Amino acid sequence: xxxxxxxxxxxxxxxxxxxxxxISATRILPEKxxxxxxxxxxxxxxxxxxxxxxxxxxxxxxxxxxxRDFEITTxxxxxxxxxxxxxxxxxxxxxxxxxxxxxxxxxxxxxLSRRFQFGNKAMVPNYPSxxxxxxxxxxxFSNKIFEFGLKKIRRIGHTMEFEQIKDYVAGxxxxxxxxxxxAKRNQLMVNQYQDERSQPIYSVIDMGxxxxxxxxxxxxxxxxxxxTLVISNVALKKQDKAGMFSFSRKVTDKVVxxxxxxxxxxxxxxxxxxxxxFAESDFSxxxxxxxxxxxxxxxxxxxxxxxxxxxxxxxxxxLQAIAKNHVLVVIFFENTELSQFIKQPAYKxxxxxxxxxxxxxxxxxxxxxxxxxxxxxxxxxTAPEDLTINTINKYLEIxxxxxx
Length: 404
Hints:
It is a single chain. The protein is of the alpha/beta class and 404 residues long. Helix content is 34%, strand content 29%.
């Protein structure tokens, strides 16, 4: 008798689940992913059943995530429609292939589940962080820069020329209000100025093996790539000319500093395709190429990494030679994992020894800054996650002091 009842219930469950159209679903992907950022992925589901459902969503994520147990559970009332959003944080540039979207629907009876598979296979390219670009674009030209660590520096010895009169927007300097134009238009108008001449700003990215070191899942190379994208955009908006090139055993991927409308797109595409060759970087080749190809005094933002004074001393003659004709800023990285390590208590002899070695490495980074300063070379020693904001700060400081 009990088995007959159970059989009847199962049959009813089968009829409920398989005799109706069921559900429809779509995965909505962005045109491209932003590297190192949380990217929203949206799934829309419509319930065509005339009863409530329990749903289990299993999305086939790109292989880069190495995740086979990703699932989302939710409920959906009869004839209802729902949007579900989850985020993905990619850590490698390149192509990300999504597989099928699988949804398992269970009726209120709960004996069986029906699988719905939606062939939403798609490829989405993962580009350098354009979300960072938008974020820093907003704050670098607003009056809220202090909230994000940007410094306001008084302009020294810089001449500006009038460009146009424009509508006042939040963040404009009130000292530039044009009162005559304001009276005529009956709304606030301001004078807009620009630097008398544009300056070439080059991001120089070391592609050697030292830049492959990861922090929070992202390599130093990708931190440098993301910062290059942002600083190039800021420079163009500041009426300078932005360019870039990379180097390892030779100088490659060169984008000549210009102010063309397509410049940012060219820089973005070049950065997308950069990859380390795990070789030892040749700074002599870098110096030779800069001497031959850069005739105008430029700001060179060199993203590299020196772990020891000896490593710096091997390359110092080339850095000094570059700095004779250009404004060179050497940007390298704090080892934040070592900084966290030395904060931990040490009780055993080997733990004390390891902490001592770690402190030595951290101190040597500070000595590198001092050594560069002694030879008249500017530098930035930064935690990887603070790279972009510190680079913008340095650029604004150099502009304000009239060094280029």
